Amino acid sequence: MTAAPRKQEVLGVGISATSYAEVANTCAGWIREKEQSSKYVCVTSVHGLMEARKDPSVRSILNGADIATPDGMPLVWALRSFGVPDQQRVYGPNLMLALCEQAEQLEHRVFLYGGRPETLDILCSNLRKRFPKLQIAGSYSPPFRALTDTEEAEVQAMIRNAAPDLLFVGISTPKQEKWMAAHRSSFPGVVMIGVGAAFDFHAGRVKQAPAWMQQRGLEWLFRLTMEPARLWKRYVLVTPWFLPFWALQKASIAMHDIACGRKE
Q: Using CA atoms, how far apart are residues 169 and 61, in angstroms rounded to an integer?
């Protein structure tokens, strides 16, 4: 049995201490073993963590994920501060490319769930140009509403009939995490990966932040300037709370260590 990477708790959520290579190797192992239930991988940002903090159901979903990668630099820094000194970012768009490259080599079939119809068309074209032998088993652009029971059954049947090994889900946080958790028993042997805005990035619909901004934890600022109307509440009212909560957890750990030291 292929074991999942270990997790480190950050604000009540287990974040995987892992790397691109380890996630790819783990997914390959799961696909090879073809278990009855599917696996799901969350790429977890500060936004996702703060959603989990206010919504116990989201927290439960993230903690139930087989892998929850540190998608943003603040989570990378938090993991390092909690004893994972070599932790690096495992960023959704880059993870998607790494898994597609591996899928091309290992002949894994991929399915794309999410995005607008025109985005999916461009995304499929771009992926095929980059990975000529990649097997894209199918794609589906869900409507911006809840599916009816009939639609849900039809979509599940479509995905099962496509027989994918990897199912990329790009419908934003926390919708994609809720969707994957709800469909864990729907697609036996499939590995689902929630990749957030990766569909839009790789289709060229949305620009990615420059590498230097990503490395310095400033991607939020770039994205805010690109989509202020959609993202201002997230980056101005929600995610800044991560810093004091992180500091409180650090202080709590330090106090616990001091208390244990005194007992000794």
A: 15
Phi-psi bin for 107: left (phi > 0), alpha (psi -120 to 50), beta? Answer: left
Integer-rounded Cα Rg, in Å, for the chain is: 19
Segment 33-38 long-range contacts (CB within 8 Å, at least 24 positions apart): 33/1, 33/2, 34/188, 34/189, 35/188, 35/189, 36/188, 36/189, 37/184, 37/185, 37/188, 38/167, 38/183, 38/184, 38/185, 38/186, 38/187, 38/188, 38/189, 38/190, 38/191, 38/192
Cross-strand pairs, 149: none
Domain map of the chain by residue range? 7-218
Instruction: Burial-class residue 58 by CB neighbours within 10 Å (0-12, 13-18, 19+).
Output: buried
Q: In the prediction, which pLDDT does 222 show? A: 87
CA distances to 13, 209, 221 from 182, in Å: 19, 32, 32
- Start-to-end C-alpha separation, the chain: 39
Cα gap 232→223, rounded to integer Å? 9
Cβ partners under 8 Å of residue 82, min gap 6: 8, 9, 10, 249, 250, 253
Q: Are 100 and 124 in contact (CB under 8 A)?
A: no
Residue 263 pLDDT greater than 90, yes or no: no
pTM: predicted TM-score of the whole model, two decimal places: 0.91
Residue 64 burial (10 A CB sphere; 0-12, 13-18, 19+): middle
> Which pLDDT band, with edges at 50, 70 and 90, does 259 fall under?
low
